[in-house]
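The instructor's notes for this session suggest beginning with a concrete chain rather than abstract definitions. Hand out the sequence below and ask the class to guess, before any prediction is shown, which regions might be ordered.
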Amino acid sequence: MKKKKLKMYLIIFISIIILIVELFPIAIIIMNSFKKDIDIWSANPFSFKPTLDSYKKVFQRKDVMLGLRNSLIVSILSTSFSLVVGAMASYALSRFKFRYRKALSYSFLISRMIPQISLSIPLFMMFRSLGLTDTLIALIFAHMSFNIPYVIWVLLPFFSSVPIEYEEAALVDGCNRKKVFWKIFIPLVGPGLVVATVFTFMMSWNEFLYALVLTSSNAKTAPVVINGFMGQYAPLWGQLAAAGTIMLIPVFVITLAFQRYLIGGMGGGVKG
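After discussion, reveal the predicted structure:
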């Protein structure tokens, strides 16, 4: 009994330490967003008069507004397309038996492991030949290249765990494959879809490298624009912190909104 309690206290203690380490940078960025540049590097980090000057300057910049708009469009569209394509591919891989099915499944996993830097130049050359550089379409397709394999592998255990009897009963009742997929499987794998939606959106929202290589002015996303605050001679620390805090808001909102489904979905599979 004593051992169990000791183990529980140890787990709680380690969890608190991990939580503090994870939250510390977030607390710093939020606190600095309410400081003047001169106060950010002062000896006492808590001695400052809160101000919204950095936020006002950020919201007055057209490039930041454009970057946030581009980030939102690219994240929403690439997530939506990736979910549809990834869910259909995952369904096919889990339900249909054909040659090289396993090899095909692992090829998606391997493609997800390729470093982005290795693909950024080939993608740039491909989109350049198509006349799509510095466009949102190019970014959406680039993001789909890493989002679709992720969606497939997240949803595979969910589709595989749906009992075959559900599918057979629906087919006997007159449903075709299309109806089985949309009306039977999609509601059953809902928790997995929520997990895939949240993480693919966050991956697109935070993506930096493809946006840096594939855009120059019109299609710049927020991370690239904010990186410009580092400046040639002196970083704009206050504006950097304010813009970083603004970038956190959609992530917090989505995570909190879907918290219940995320916890259930990350358990994996459908409870039959």
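Then share the key points. The chain has 14 helices and no strands. Residues 53-265 form a domain with the MetI-like fold fold (CATH 1.10.3720.10).
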